[in-house]
UniProtKB/TrEMBL annotation:
Species of provenance: Desulfomarina profundi
GO cellular component term of the entry, any: cytoplasm
UniProt gene name: xerD
Keywords: Cell cycle, Cell division, Chromosome partition, Cytoplasm, DNA integration, DNA recombination, DNA-binding
Name the UniProt record assigns to this protein: Tyrosine recombinase XerC
Subcellular location: Cytoplasm
Length: 248
């Protein structure tokens, strides 16, 4: 095997519409494999040693529209304790931009309803305070007063959002809940819990929030990670310009 054969393979992958990210993973795996073969004297040299990884690029996070958020957060007329819980979770997620792992494991004591702040221990055990709005406060209060005791049925739990067993919800279960809620709301696009975090950041920046404040609320160590959300709004503006400008 030589470098020309490797490049031919990568070109074949590109023609098959395989993404650069997937190709990058393939090359990385082959680099490691041939490095091992070279160390074991099975091959004379590693042909991938001088092959650069394809640039994976960075896909823009997908956000919901304001109308989709409204439909997602509007509960059905008949409320069960679990639906009340789920609705409160969705409101808090959109209001704070929490990571799903942070939301489902949120301690009861971390939610300060009087000050409308939630205290989160994020990545790298870094603590941050995130404000939330009056609507989220009302939903959480309603859940705590009416639904949480019925779900617990006399059991005790230190988690804010709990299952019938008094434990925190799994990521998979919350993903199932948000998918079911979106379908009931008539949202046809594929939706994930992380899209509410993306929507939180995108909508804040679109309405004039400064980048540094959004970075602090999201818990990003590097502001460059937050800057990707400015590109989403730029893409939206491009679409508006193309659609409505007479020479767009």
């Amino acid at each position: 095997m030589d470098v020309s054969l490797i490049h031919a393979f990568l070109e074949h992958c590109r023609q098959q519409s395989i993404s650069n990210r997937s190709n990058s993973r393939r090359v990385s795996a082959l680099k490691s494999f041939f490095s091992f073969l070279s160390r074991q004297k099975i091959v004379k040299h590693n042909p991938f040693a001088i092959v650069d990884l394809p640039k994976s690029g960075r896909t823009l996070p997908k956000a919901l529209t304001l109308d989709e958020v409204k439909r997602l957060l509007t509960p059905p007329e008949k409320l069960s304790p679990l639906i009340t819980r789920d609705n409160a979770m969705l409101f808090l997620l959109y209001s704070t931009g929490l990571r799903v792992s942070e939301l489902i494991k949120l301690p009861l004591a971390a939610c300060n309803l009087s000050a409308c702040f939630v205290r989160v221990l994020g990545k790298g055990n870094k603590e941050r305070l995130i404000p939330f709005g009056e609507q989220a406060k009302e939903k959480i209060e309603f859940y705590l007063e009416t639904a949480r005791p019925l779900i617990l049925k006399g059991k005790r739990s230190n988690y804010l959002f709990i299952t019938h067993h008094g434990k925190c919800m799994t990521r998979l279960r919350f993903w199932q809940i948000i998918r079911k809620t979106a379908q009931a709301a008539g949202i046809r696009k594929e939706i994930s819990p992380h899209m509410l975090r993306h929507s939180f950041a995108t909508h804040l920046l679109a309405h004039g929030a400064d980048l540094r404040s959004v970075q602090l609320m999201l818990g990003h160590a590097d502001i460059a990670t937050t800057q990707i959300y400015t590109h989403i709004d730029q893409e939206r503006l491009k679409k508006v310009h193309k659609q409505f400008h007479p020479r767009g």
